[in-house]
Every structure is written in C-alpha cells, then in structure tokens.
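Why run this: before we spend reagent on co-expression, it is cheaper to look at a predicted model of the complex and decide which construct boundaries make sense. The entries below are exactly what would go into the expression plan.
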Amino acid sequence: MLWNSLLWILWQTSNTPEMADALRQSGKIYVVVAVILVIFAGIIFYLFRIENQLKKYERHSQHLN
Amino acid sequence: MVKLMQQSWWKLLAIFLLCYTVVGGLLFAVPRLNILNETIRNLYYHVPMWFGMIILFTVSLVYSILYLYRGKLSDDLMAVETANVGLLLGVLGLLTGMIWANYTWGSPWNGDPKQNMSAIALLIYFAYSILRASIPDPTKRARISAVYNIFAFFSMIPLLFVVPRLTDSLHPSNGGNNGFVVYDLDNQMRLVFYPAVMGFTLLGLWISSLRIRLRLIFDPNYNHSSL
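The model came back. Tokens follow.
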C-alpha cells in the first residue's frame, strides 16, 4: 500500500511539467515571501510618511485660505 | 474628492490586497504547465500592471471629458496625474513582459502583435505628456490635452483588444493561440489574480492622489482651484 502510493508520487512527478517542488517542501520559499514583504512594508511606510507630511501642508494651506 | 483622497481605508485595503498577492501568488497552487512552469505566477504581477494601466487611463479619460464639460482646472490635474501613473504601470508591464517573454518565447521582443501594439499605445500616451509640456498656457493646455486624451484612449482600445485578435499572437486567447485556456479558466488563480488587479490599481491611484494633492498646494496653476 505504502509502496504503491510512493510509486504513484514518483510517476506523477516524473510525468508532469517541472515545478519548484523542492523549494516548497524545504520551506525556503518562505524566505522569499518574507524578503518581498519586508521590502513592500518599507515602501508603504515611506508612502505614509509622504502622506503625513502632505496632510500637514494641507492643514497649513487651509489656514491661509 | 480631496476628502476621499485623504482617507486611509482604501490605502489600507490596497496594502492588504498586495500582501495577499505576494503571499498567495508565491504559495498557492498553480497549474503545472510545460514551458511556463513556475513562471505562470507572473500572471499575478505582470498582467495586473496592464489592468491597472487601463483602469487609470479610464479615470483619466473621465476627468478629461469632465474638464471639457465644466472647465475646472482641477479636473485637468486629475486627468494628467492618473495618466502619468497609468503610463508608469504600462512601462512596468512592458518590461516585465519582456523578461517573461525572454524565458518562455525565447527572446524579449518577438514582434508579437500585442507586444507591438501595446508599445504603440504607450507611445501615444507619451505624446500626451509631450503635448502638455509644449503648451505654456494652463487653460489652453488643459483643453487641447483633454481632447487628445480622449483620442488616445480610443486608439488604445483597438490596439490592445482588437488588432492582436485579428492575427496570430503569442499572447494567450489572441488569434490562433488558445494554449493558455487552462489558466484562463483556473479558479484557483482567479482567487489571487483579481485581488492583485485591485491592489495594484489602488496603489496606482494612491500614488497619483499624492501628486494631485501636492500640486493642489504648490503648483501655481492649480492652487486656487478646488476639487
């Protein structure tokens, strides 16, 4: 039974287009996800800094009008 | 409109959708296909650039029509800044498409009709910026470029959606190529693809809203106009 399912997995992986199965199984794909998320968070943080600065200017220019 | 641009709920929604796109786009299961292999995941990042571009150009079109209708300079500002970010997304779409094409089609530029026509569509929109830069008078610039923008939009539509379907194209679902129907219909991929389109579009609108608000305060041509 176990042998059969093992054979089936072997058959499946050898007959389908190659994918990064090892990268997923070892969990190293999470390293990539983490890196992209950190970079994205940095960009978003910066966008919010611009946003806040802009709000300050907007309040200021409303006082003038 | 300024109120909506200042609100943060839709920006947080963009962040959430884009985080989901990164995580889901890299981790969720995708169809196992020859040639494409794992690069099928580019569908979550390359294609939303074009969808986002078209949505931003549509917003730009609406504001150009509005400008011609009611003559408010702030409408012109909305039109130009959404078109600028749309152009940015289009260039990113073209560059990412070239990287993907190099891997799957053998060369970055294959003279594929959709590739050629999207390059032409981008040139038409670059001409919009050049046209604007060449007219110093703000109201004349707004009127002429609004008319041009309407023409630009309605020449982009056939270039991207009609011409590539008239001939053979390497792009999926264009011309004789139906090889990608597998992923066109894959519901698992739609689960990430549509949120990705929404996320990137909202991010584009966010960036254009920053520039619009900035110019409303500091650009002498616009700072007395109200949205």
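Residues 26-65 of chain A form one domain. DSSP finds three helices and no strands in chain A. Bring this page to Monday's planning discussion.
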